Amino acid sequence: MKKIVIKNIGTIVTGNIETPIIEGNTIVIEDGIISAIGSEELLEQNPDAKIIDANGVAVAPGLIDSHVHTTIGDFAPRQKTLDFIESSLHGGVTTMISAGEAHMPGRPKDPVGTKALAVVVSKSFYNAPPAGVKVHGGALILEKGLVENDFKELKEQGVWLVGEIGLGSVKNPKEAAPMVEWAHKYGFKVQMHTGGTSIPGSSTVTAADVIETKPDVVSHINGGPTAISLEEVDKIMNETSFALEIVQCGNPKVADYVAVKAKEMNMLSRIIFGNDAPSGTGIIPLGILRNMCQISSMSNVAPEIAVCMATGNTAKVYGLNTGVLAVGKEADLICMDAPMGSVADDALGAIAAGDVPGISMVLINGETVVSKSRNTPPAKRNATVA
User: How far apart are CA 326 and CA 344, in angstroms?
Assistant: First the structure.
């Protein structure tokens, strides 16, 4: 059994919006799973463990990007870019969720082809996760002609996501709603494009369309990049319980409106964070960190709650065993602190001030995959292997 102990933690940020910060300064990891959280006595109880000294920095769950347009491997053909997934890892992202492989060169648009693409991409990422990042790819793009048995067959092959509705030929609720019912019957999670058009071939989706279709996630409620009106936002927030996705590649004013309204309505647990990249807006390796900083500093949301939007909230929506720092969860973790030169003294203070925190270590399944971020500003303090 492989054991790792992280000691001298300044703040444990759980990702659980019910208890976003807990007491303790030590975490024990056994075979990639968090086995104990507590005080220094855990160090004494595990004398043979590998030691990571947090040196007073905050430890939080690895971030989850809820909206990525992958293809196959670590390649973004829309931006002609390699290693964008690994670059996001250096921004603290340890899990990515595909919103549909819309940018796949020569993407098939018939039922057989869209199914085949979903299976191949899903299995390829599970077989070879880029830089160790847990990529849930192969989100089925809905095309006309799909039938209920297609969803059953796909689930048997490990596909469990429907990419944002509107990317394929199925665009209106009349066509989409029956397919969403089939998807839910077989345990799929469903995303739906919301707002104005984003790229050639996409279409405008209204609040009424979303309400009638009944997805699990309102993709980019703040636009991707063009947002729906605030009246339409109100309708979705007031009349549904769907997850509300805020993306970095969206409208910042609407993002602020959604966060403030969600706080007033006591529904911050519905907000999740994505990048919506690679897209016309580009690739943003620090996009999820920037979402956290924007919503905390501009919308007056506590920084530890903003962390939950990037971790535990998303994990709950998608049924993942990560994104929360608790016993029994996968040990996908980040060590972070205020960046050098920040007005803040620690990571949470930096997020509240709008400063991207410095990440000094990233772990996936308890393994150190980044020992110092190449993309964030340098941290004031750094976690190190003792």
Answer: 27
Helices (H) and strands (E) in the chain, counts: 12, 21
pLDDT tens track for 18-59: 999 999 999 999 999 999 999 999 999 999 999 999 999 999
Answer whether residue 10 shows pLDDT above 70: yes
Residue 386 is predicted with a pLDDT of 82
> Which residues, including other chains, have CB under 8 Å from residue 264's CB and lie 6 or more apart?
none
Burial grade of 175 (CB within 10 A; 0-12, 13-18, 19 or more): middle
Q: What's domain 3-61+324-385's superfamily in CATH?
A: Urease, subunit C, domain 1 (2.30.40.10)
Distance CA 198, CA 182 (A): 27
H helices of 191-275, where?
Answer: 207-213, 230-239, 252-264
Same CATH fold assignment for domains 3-61+324-385 and 63-285: no
Residue with tokens 């529904």: 267
The residue written with tokens 């739906």 in the block is 192
Residue type, 241: S
CA pair distance 11, 348, nearest whole angstrom = 9
**Rg for the chain, CA atoms, rounded:** 20
| Domain extent listing, the chain | 3-61+324-385, 63-285
SS3 (DSSP) at 189: strand
Tokens of 301: 């949301």
Model confidence at 199: pLDDT above 70: no
Category of 201 on φ-ψ map: left (φ > 0), alpha (ψ -120 to 50) or beta:
left
User: Any idea of the CA torsion for 344, 346, 351, 354, to the nearest 10 degrees?
Assistant: 20
Assign 253 to helix, strand or coil.
helix
Nearest to 309 by CA among 245, 265, 261: 245
Task: Report d(CA 226, CA 247) in Å as an integer.
Answer: 11
Residue with tokens 């602020």: 256
Domain 63-285, what fold? TIM Barrel (3.20.20)
Tokens of 32: 């990639």
